[in-house]
């Protein structure tokens, strides 16, 4: 082999083959610094927005600061106008009106702001063996063992008997009490540990410890329970029946933080899918002089199948675009048919510790850049919107043109499992759509991990799209 041949092969490789390398290697120090500083704000968002309601509230604050105002269906809007619309405090749409408005379709980035957690049952409070406890019903796909013996905080809202709402946000501050699901000590867990992991804890085992001191009175029963509700009544003015009209969610009671000696990653709760929601929101906030009208949607209920009136199988996104089309004198069906969407959701990052679950050639990697996922679903491509080659080509070229680091990803090996996203519900509207997002380690766990570089590449991808 002479030198000439080797360099020709090298040349051909560069021309013809995909280059696999740690993406952080190909990026300048300035780019890495830009990613790090973007992620400081992202972490602050994560800590303020642990539930869908808090994400909407935090997003509204950011939108207002950036000059967005609440959408009014009776008002006429012009290019450059910036609006947001809230659906029941749990979903949000932010739009910048483009120079051609909705005439040639709109550009949508849609992410979700609900995450797996433990919800209180409608009648949660009980006393057993002198302990006060809450019954829960888990929300979304969790590995139940990850939610025991770890501090939890309660976030949510209670609608009281008089119709007034009171917000609950307790357990985040180290001075506040936290809550937890207890576990059995290893000494007595022989039987428990012989069960398969999906049977170690049942849904009815996820009971939350909330008190142990009785109300001082020797004649009555269930005095621990009484004491708990008395404390809740003192603090929030609620009575036991008010739990029926409440949405109270138990989430990990600790903030997000940097991971690794190099601080290159972020660990924290709810990054599926706030790691896409925040960049997509910031892309809408920073959109200027756009040709098309651009819209970022933050949707609820993705983790339970995008159901309900705040989930993206509901009609609220179509209603909003329909209003915008009407404003321009356009037909909604024609607008949707010409529209494009990035379904901004996470993919599973390749994990060498669990390599057998992944197919290495088609997995996404930490520091590999923003992930384009042509299809999700499961074995045989069921339950997915399979993006067209044409739209994949368009998005790929857009990313290359902007020098954005990107990779493709399929969720694990064929036939080993699978997952869904919002993409197929947007595709149903006859919109071109593909999943674009961030690779996550330990997805759906209380401590999900992402790469800072990837988060920033997702932001840049949404900016490139929403312009
Ligand atoms: Mn997701
Ligand atoms: Mn998820």
Which key features would you list for this structure?
seven-stranded antiparallel β-sheet; 24% strand; binds manganese (II) ion; 467 residues; alpha/beta; nine-stranded mixed β-sheet; 12 helices; Aminopeptidase i, Domain 2
Question: What this model shows, in words?
Answer:
By secondary structure, the chain is α/β, with parallel strands linked by helices. The protein has 2 domains: 11-115 and 269-466, Zn peptidases (Aminopeptidase), CATH 3.40.630.10; 117-252, Aminopeptidase i, Domain 2, CATH 2.30.250.10. It is 29% helix and 24% strand. The strands form 5 sheets. The chain has a 9-stranded mixed sheet with strand order 1-2-3-14-4-15-21-17-19, sandwiched between helices. A hairpin with a 3-residue loop joins strand 2 (82-87) and strand 3. It starts with a helix and ends with a helix. Bound molecules: manganese (II) ion (2 copies). Residues 112, 272-273, 302, 345-346 line the site of one manganese (II) ion (MN).
Would you summarize the structure shown here?
This protein is an alpha/beta fold. Helices cover 29% and strands 24% of the residues. It contains twelve helices and 23 strands.
CATH class of the largest domain: Alpha Beta
**Rounded Rg:** 24 Å
> How many domains would you count in the coordinates?
2
Using the coordinates shown, work out and report the CATH topology of the largest domain: Aminopeptidase
Numbering strands along the chain, what is their spatial order in the largest sheet? 1-2-3-14-4-15-21-17-19
CATH superfamily of the largest domain: Zn peptidases
> What is the end-to-end distance?
50 Å
Bound molecules: manganese (II) ion
How would you sum up the global shape?
globular
Number of helices: 12
Helix/strand-derived class? alpha/beta
Name the CATH architecture of the largest domain: 3-Layer(aba) Sandwich
**Mean pLDDT over all positions:** 96
């Amino acid at each position: 082999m002479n030198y000439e041949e080797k360099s020709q092969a090298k040349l051909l490789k560069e021309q013809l083959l995909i280059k696999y390398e740690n993406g952080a290697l190909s990026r300048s120090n300035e780019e890495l610094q830009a990613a790090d500083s973007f992620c400081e704000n992202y972490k602050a968002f994560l800590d303020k927005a642990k539930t869908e309601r808090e994400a909407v509230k935090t997003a509204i604050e950011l939108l207002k600061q950036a000059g967005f105002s609440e959408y009014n269906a009776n008002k006429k809007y012009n290019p450059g106008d910036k609006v947001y619309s809230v659906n029941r405090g749990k979903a949000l749409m932010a739009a910048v009106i483009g120079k051609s408005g909705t005439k040639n379709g709109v550009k949508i980035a849609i992410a979700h702001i609900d995450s797996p957690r433990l919800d209180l049952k409608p009648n949660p409070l009980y006393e057993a063996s002198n302990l006060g406890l809450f019954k829960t019903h888990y929300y979304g796909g969790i590995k139940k063992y990850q939610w025991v013996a770890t501090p939890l905080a309660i976030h949510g809202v209670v609608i009281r008997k008089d119709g007034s709402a009171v917000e609950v946000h307790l357990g985040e501050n180290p001075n506040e009490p936290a809550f937890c699901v207890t576990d059995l000590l290893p000494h007595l867990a022989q039987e428990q540990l012989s069960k398969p992991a999906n049977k170690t804890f049942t849904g009815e085992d996820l009971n939350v410890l909330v008190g142990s001191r009785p109300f001082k009175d020797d004649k009555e029963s269930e005095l621990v329970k009484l004491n708990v509700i008395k404390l809740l009544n003192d603090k929030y003015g609620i009575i036991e029946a008010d739990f029926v009209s409440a949405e109270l969610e138990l989430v990990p009671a600790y903030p997000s933080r940097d991971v690794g000696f190099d601080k290159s990653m972020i660990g924290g709760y709810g990054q599926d899918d706030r790691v896409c929601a925040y960049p997509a929101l910031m892309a809408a906030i920073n959109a200027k002089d756009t040709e098309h009208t651009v819209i970022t949607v933050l949707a609820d209920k993705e983790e339970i199948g995008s159901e309900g009136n705040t989930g993206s199988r509901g009609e609220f996104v179509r209603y909003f675009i329909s209003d915008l089309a009407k404003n321009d004198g356009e037909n909604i069906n024609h607008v949707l048919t010409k529209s494009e969407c990035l379904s901004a959701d996470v993919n599973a990052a390749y994990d060498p510790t669990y390599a057998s679950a992944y197919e290495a050639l088609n997995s996404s990697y930490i520091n590999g850049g923003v992930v384009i996922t042509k299809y999700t679903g499961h074995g045989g491509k069921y339950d997915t919107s399979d993006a067209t080659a044409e739209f994949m080509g368009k998005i790929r070229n857009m990313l290359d043109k902007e020098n954005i680091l990107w990779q493709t990803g399929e969720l694990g090996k064929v036939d080993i499992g699978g997952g869904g996203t919002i993409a197929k519900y947007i595709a149903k509207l006859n919109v071109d759509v593909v999943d674009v997002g961030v690779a996550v380690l330990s997805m759906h766990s209380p401590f999900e991990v992402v790469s800072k570089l990837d988060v920033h590449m997702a932001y840049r991808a949404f900016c490139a799209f929403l312009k």
